[in-house]
Amino acid sequence: MTGKAKQPKEALAGSLTDFLCFAVYSTNLAFGRAYKPLFDELGITYPQYVTLIALNEESDQTVSQLGEKLFLESSTLTPLLKRLEAVGYVTRTRDTVDERQVRIALTKEGKAIFEKAFCGRERVIEATGLDYDTFVRLQSDLLTLRGNLLKASAK
């Protein structure tokens, strides 16, 4: 698609399922339901899971760096990190150069729970019913959509 999507006037009175924002929102909720058995088994939440993913990708980052990656405010992220620290999955330490910054690192236990969760995600990927090419294309399209929306909201 090369141009901007146009919406015909008759679609403005459409049903809830006609709205892309609702499709994305409700799909996110469906993902939560699909992941719930795995997360219940591991004793983690979805926000904790994505935090473990980000820390596995790059350990020892600041709370603000992590917040940017996860699209979470510090007021949301800090309690989440404290809970992960309490169960031994992360460490929180003051930066040696700038003590105002708190650095987060994945522990050995955190790495182990991440690996269990990562292996379990195959069930959820399978539950999408998408073939590999469609899965990859959809993920790419959603990242493009997110980027466009962020760009537009920054204006």
UniProtKB/TrEMBL annotation:
<dbReference type="InterPro" id="IPR000835">
    <property type="entry name" value="HTH_MarR-typ"/>
</dbReference>
<feature type="domain" description="HTH marR-type">
    <location>
        <begin position="17"/>
        <end position="144"/>
    </location>
</feature>
<dbReference type="InterPro" id="IPR036388">
    <property type="entry name" value="WH-like_DNA-bd_sf"/>
</dbReference>
<dbReference type="InterPro" id="IPR036390">
    <property type="entry name" value="WH_DNA-bd_sf"/>
</dbReference>
<dbReference type="GO" id="GO:0006950">
    <property type="term" value="P:response to stress"/>
</dbReference>
<dbReference type="InterPro" id="IPR055166">
    <property type="entry name" value="Transc_reg_Sar_Rot_HTH"/>
</dbReference>
<keyword id="KW-0238">DNA-binding</keyword>
<dbReference type="GO" id="GO:0003677">
    <property type="term" value="F:DNA binding"/>
</dbReference>
<dbReference type="Pfam" id="PF22381">
    <property type="entry name" value="Staph_reg_Sar_Rot"/>
</dbReference>
<dbReference type="InterPro" id="IPR039422">
    <property type="entry name" value="MarR/SlyA-like"/>
</dbReference>
<keyword id="KW-0963">Cytoplasm</keyword>
<keyword id="KW-0804">Transcription</keyword>
<keyword id="KW-0805">Transcription regulation</keyword>
<dbReference type="GO" id="GO:0003700">
    <property type="term" value="F:DNA-binding transcription factor activity"/>
</dbReference>
<dbReference type="GO" id="GO:0005737">
    <property type="term" value="C:cytoplasm"/>
</dbReference>
<protein>
    <submittedName>
        <fullName>Organic hydroperoxide resistance transcriptional regulator</fullName>
    </submittedName>
</protein>
